Amino acid sequence: MPEPLRLQGISASAGYAEGPLFSLDRAASHYTVKATAADERAALEAAIGIATGRLGGLIETADSEAAGILEFQIAMLEDDALSGPALAAIASGQPADAAWRQVLDAEIAGYEASDQDYFRARAADLHDIRDQVLRALSEDDESTAPAGAIFYGEDLAPTRFLETDWSSGGGIALKAGSAASHVAMLARSRGVPMVVGLGAAGPSASPANPVGIALLDAEHGGIVLSPSPAEIEAFRRSSSSFAARRDKAETYLARPAMTKAGTAVRVQVNIADLSDVDGIDIATCDGVGLMRTEFLFGKTLPDEETQYRAYRKVLEWAGEKPVTIRTVDAGGDKPVPGLTVEEANPFLGLRGIRLSLARPEILRVQIRALLRAGIHGNLKVMFPMIAVADEYARAAALFAEEQAGLAARGVAQKTPPLGIMVEVPSVAIAPEAFADVAFFSIGSNDLTQYVMAAARDNTAVAHLNSVRHPAVLRLIASVVAFGREQRIPVSLCGDAGGDPASIPGLLEAGLRDLSVAPAQLAMAKAAIADVTV
Amino acid sequence: MSASAEATVLITHAVGLHARPSVKFTKLAKTFAAEVEVALAANGPWFDAKSIVKVMAAKAPKGTLLHIRAKGDGAGEAVGALVELVRRDFDEGADHARTA
């Protein structure tokens, strides 16, 4: 029996799977070269037809997410822009498989060279299209994965995912891959555990080199190959605990969150990208507690119109429910080209509102977009990294100036309630300087790292970085108490809000309004139901 | 027929003119007889709007000002319909259900 081997990657779809490893990186099957160029041409056209037909067959039983991917692949296969160059290569003497591979590999290289995640992820679709046709060309019976297998390899084709019967378990462990890929989206929607980015260090499993059973922990993003009996036992405990939590959580999703004692708790969602709202039923949450706007600030600074449309889309999606948009929080671990500056200690430097006030022309554009979007829903706006009251006063003054400017030009607008993030300890310790803000939103990630002096991105001090430390919880409780006294609403929008282990402490500290990642919504509601406050 | 038309439209879709949106875009373009092309800049390069491979290769992310031009029979209608599709955000969300 080989030694156990642990590999660490990134979770792309949470869950647990135990099963035989099935290698995806096997040698391609053989293609028999035909006698004439005309035969080669006919073989390629037939293979494209077979592949298209197979994809069409899969659409019949696919859900809309999968059907969209399949329709895209069919459209690509039916496009002369792919088959044309391949047929030309055949005419010049190449066999069909080499001709097709050459054209597709050139396309794939173009996608892989992209600087956008979404576009790079499409390379997997092109790989899939390529292999579908190569498979049809060689008419080779591909050996099928055993039931409950963990697919292990460089990357997995979306059609391969759809052809696989996941009803008896199984999972996906990829050396490369991306959480933004079509396969990752499919895995999340079907609840198939998936880990990406395990690296190339693992063994190449083959009949000659069996690794036996593998344990895929896609809750924490790891896999164990050739595990010991003790590891298997521990894994099964984690797995059944996860399954129990998930099953139980699902029953809570559609209901308003409430503790065991009957105390109502508002649970909102955090949004980091416009596409996030596509996967959320607004009826399952109490609004958006944090809409980050950094995604708009990519390679170039977004113009007012782009921002306005993005804010409006989320506001209209949320209907009457509140949407709290945070002004751009660049700096720290979130650099933005053309905006942030190089610093020796970025977490303690020019980030959040500090940077926005240093570059008011950029903040003003965002403020105008927010004022205009404000008429389309229940908007609230908050400023990140506020340390002293003057920063809030200056940011609020910019809102007033831009509002007056828009009003003078006859542009429809509405000033939203303005609040602040509570993440710098100075605010949590002395909140009385902020008695005039509309609301407080506790940013527990930064508050914890500043109180504990333990950087969020440093695994060496990760054990110190706990929101459950009494010092952090005491500060949270004092902010909640101040808010009650002054009638200022207090919510929390850090990762701790969606962490079942931290939720009891947060509710005991007096919080009744949490904002969590969409994927944690059900689990958070279930955890709240277990608390006795 | 020497009809021709040209217009620009801002792509607001979260992932730009990719995958599902580009399927809709090219399918619609193919319903017109006119020769239709797209570009990311007024001076090109221009891509065949009826080819999903070419449209995808244009790599138009969200926030791109897409240039659309058409030549021949129904050029004006073709440009108008494609601009509308982009403006409607490719009917994503409302018309997410498949028709197959």
TrEMBL record, chain A:
Compartment(s) where it occurs, according to its Swiss-Prot or TrEMBL record: Cytoplasm
EC nos: 2.7.3.9
Catalytic reaction(s) noted: L-histidyl-[protein] + phosphoenolpyruvate = N(pros)-phospho-L-histidyl-[protein] + pyruvate
Domain PEP-utilising enzyme C-terminal residues, every copy: 250-531
Lineage: superkingdom: Bacteria
GO MF entry, a single one: metal ion binding
Transmembrane segments: none
Family: Belongs to the PEP-utilizing enzyme family.
Role according to the record: General (non sugar-specific) component of the phosphoenolpyruvate-dependent sugar phosphotransferase system (sugar PTS). This major carbohydrate active-transport system catalyzes the phosphorylation of incoming sugar substrates concomitantly with their translocation across the cell membrane. Enzyme I transfers the phosphoryl group from phosphoenolpyruvate (PEP) to the phosphoryl carrier protein (HPr).
Record's protein name: Phosphoenolpyruvate-protein phosphotransferase
Annotated organism of origin: Mesorhizobium amorphae CCNWGS0123
From TrEMBL, chain B:
NCBIfam families recorded: PTS_HPr_family (TIGR01003)
Species this chain originates from: Mesorhizobium amorphae CCNWGS0123
SUPFAM superfamilies found in the cross-reference section: HPr-like
CDD domains cross-referenced by the UniProt entry: PTS-HPr_like
Transmembrane segments: none
Keywords: Sugar transport, Transport
Biological function: General (non sugar-specific) component of the phosphoenolpyruvate-dependent sugar phosphotransferase system (sugar PTS). This major carbohydrate active-transport system catalyzes the phosphorylation of incoming sugar substrates concomitantly with their translocation across the cell membrane. The phosphoryl group from phosphoenolpyruvate (PEP) is transferred to the phosphoryl carrier protein HPr by enzyme I. Phospho-HPr then transfers it to the PTS EIIA domain.
InterPro entries in the cross-refs: HPr, HPr-like, HPr-like_sf, PTS_HPr_His_P_site
Listed name of the protein: Phosphocarrier protein HPr
Domain (HPr): residue spans on this chain: 4-93
